[in-house]
Every structure is written in C-alpha cells, then in structure tokens.
Amino acid sequence: MNRNAVALVVVAGMSASAHAGVEVGGTAGVHVFSEHNALGTKEDDIISHANSAVFSFRLGVYFSAMLGVEAEVGVIPTESRGGNVTFDIFDGFARGNLIAQFRSESGSNTIIPFVTLGGGAMRVMSIGTDDGSLLKEGATDPFGFVGIGAKYRAGGGWGVRADFRVNLVPSNTSSVTTDFEALATLYREWGRPAAKAKVEEKKDETTETATADADNDGILDADKCPNEAEDKDGFQDEDGCPDADNDNDGIADTADKCASEPEDKDNFQDDDGCPDPDNDNDGVPDAADKCADQAETRNGFDDEDGCADEIPAALQKSVGVVTGVTFKVNSADLLPASNKALDALAATLAQFKGVKVEIGAHTDDQALKAGGAFADNDALSQARAESVKAYLVTKGVAEDQIVAKGYGATKPAQDPTGLKGGKLAAARKANQRVELQIVMPEAAAAAATPAAPAAEPAKE
After folding, report:
1. How much of the chain, in percent, has pLDDT values that exceed 70?
2. pTM
3. H helices within 292-376, ranges in order?
4. Could you tell me the CATH number of the domain that includes residue 139?
5. In what order do the strands lie in the sheet with 357-362?
6. Is residue 239's pLDDT more than 90?
7. How many angstroms from the chain centroid is the CA of residue 200?
8. Which residue from 285, 297, 396, 457 puts its CA 20 to 30 A from 265's CA?
9. Which pairs from 203-210 meet CB under 8 Å and 24+ separation?
10. For 42-81, how does the pLDDT look when each residue is reduced to its tens digit (9 = 90+)?
11. Residue 43 is part of which domain span?
C-alpha cells in the first residue's frame, strides 16, 4: 500500500460518518529489523539495517465505538549492520491500517484493548556513504503488519497507547521475513463517549429528615455509632463515635494530660496519662537508667548509669595537688623523684578506667629567661602537663582518659601580689605545682564543685 492509498483510506473513513471520532498522536518506539530484510540490499547481502528507534505521527478516524482506520508516517534513524564498514541510514515509511477496539463504547472504561491489521511502504531516504554498492539509496519495499495493544484513557480527551506489531517484509534470502515493533503513543481524542453519571436512588425526604442524624452529631446515620454523638476532639472525628480514650492507655481523655500519647505504665505517675521517658529527670533515659527512681549524681564518676553515687575514697584522695612531682629548672623533664608519686597515681587511675581526669600544670609568676626552650610560662606549663600524661600512659593508663592542660601563672594557689622576701618565695613555691581534677560531663560543668585546695606545692 503506497502513500496515496493510505490517504484514500483516511478520506473515506472521515466521510463515512458525520459523527466519527478522531484521534491524533505522536509515537516513539523500537523497530527490530530482520537480518534478512531486503530493503536496499542485494540478494544474500550480509549488510542489513540495525535495530533502532522509530518516531511517527498518527491520525485515526473511527466510524463507530469499535471500528476505525489509521494513517501514519514516520522515520527510523539507524545504521548498517554487518559488512566491513558501518554507515548511517535514514529510513522513512508510510502506512495505513484497520483497527478494532473493545470496551470503548462506555466513557467510564479507561483500559481499551485493540487489534490492528494494515500495510504500507518503507524507503531508504539517505545513507551516510558514497559507495552505492553497499546499500541502494531510494529503494522502497512494501510491507504488511498485524498488531495488538491497549489504550489508557486519561482526562480531557488525552490518553496513552501501547502497540506490539509484527511486520511482514521482503527477504533477500526467501520471499518474506519478519520485523518487530514496540510503540508508545501520546494521543488526543475527539468524540470520546461521555462517562455515564451515577444514578442515585431517590429517597423519601420525610424519612431521611427524621432518621438522617439521630444523635445530632453532624454525621449522618451511616456513622458507626448512630445513637452516640461524636465527641469532636480532633481524633477520628469522621466515624461518628465518641472516643473516651484516644490513646487507649486506660485513662479517660477527661483526666488524661496527654490524650494522644499513651501512658507508659512504669509505676511512676501512671495516673496522669503521660509517658515518662526519664522518671527521675537526670538526663538518663529510663531504658538505660539502672536507678530510674534516683537521679544521677553528676560528679564525673559513672555518670551514665543513672544512679546516685559518690566518688570513691581512693580516687578522691588523688584529687588536687599531686605531691612529690618535680621537674628540672625551666624544663619539662621529670626528675626521678617523681616516679613514686606518679606510679601510685597510675595505679589509682587504672582502677577507675571510666573516669576522665585533667592533669593541670602551674608555674609561678616569674618570667622565663630569653632564649630558653620555652617562650613563656604558659608553654612551659603545657609541656610539663604533657610530660606527666606521657609518663602515666607508659604505666598503663589509657591516653584518652587524661587531658593535659597548662595554666602558666594564671591560677596561683597563693596570690603573690604585694608579698616580699620569704613570704613571696613561699607563695611562688606553692604556685609551682601539678594538680589532678576529675573532668565533669559538659551538662554539669557549670554546677561542678570547686577544685580541692592546694595541699603541697611541686618542686622545680
């Protein structure tokens, strides 16, 4: 069937009925060429058309809800397959077909299956090579096809359609071979049957007025509780039933302070209707709190177990000035005399691995000599704190258990201001020290107990 024949079929279909439905659409899909498709090839030629995309425009006219005719023109941009070279091929086609669709008489049906039968012609429009011996430009072959598919009707006359077709085409090895197509179309339809309006049963107005809302809750008697008024509390207000206990925790909404959250029934304030995730308000959730009815004591010792506790005496004795720690003058090097005190401290810390401590080093207010190993007292004190930490780590204390901090002369144990002679010397000696403090949790840092007073100064 050539283009003129297709046009005649379309014109005949359009004139057959003044009330014909019309469908216009754009199509895209895949065309699978047979390796033996004879279009533009020679007999037994190894060159064929590669599988490719297909694009087309389709016009359909329907004589009735079931039968119609369609005309379609399109292109297939492809390339050669087989042979020693690959080159572009641009194919064009025109075709016409009869279509029989089912379930289309009712506008309420959205899925419309169909079958189709037709034919047309395909032409090699151009090739991307000057070698005419490879493929004949301008060659035209007829073909026939059968297909099945379905339409989906959307609103406003729009729809989508899927086609699956088998094309019967001339073969270069026998009389006929088969190509295949899978197509998707977006279309617009005119003349679609209107959806039938639902016919509602006419009710006796007198009876309806008398029984429509027996409980006067604003919800017709189709509600689940026609004789009990809905309580309109924002919870399941469309079912027509009063909801005495929205969260089903056994506490009536009138007494429930948390009507949308069920009580957790843990023997703590179970009558208020509210879940209590932290009964003792110590910041440790009840699920992890070993003492849910006792608030955690935030003292840096076992602060995650949720229990009230005191710092063990063995650990408390180590808090404050670490007696016996000495350094070389203006140096961070520990003197051997420090080993005994630090060994004892390491043994204590090893017993309380979960306690984080700070080693703080302090100096007096005398400026360091220029050209020394340290620029100022801040740098010297930081280095001394790091030296003590390093020693404790060698004795088995975890590195992340200790924070080293140098304070320089910023926190004197005794204020040297205005002192002279022996009193000034004694104050400066007291200020040269190493202290241990327990590191408090951040949440309790502001309320932490002040550090223990200095007991005995370290020696330089």
Report:
1. 72
2. 0.41
3. 313-316, 339-351
4. 2.40.160.20
5. 320-321, 433-438, 357-362, 402-408
6. no
7. 46
8. 297
9. none
10. 877 788 999 999 999 999 999 998 999 999 999 999 999 9
11. 3-190
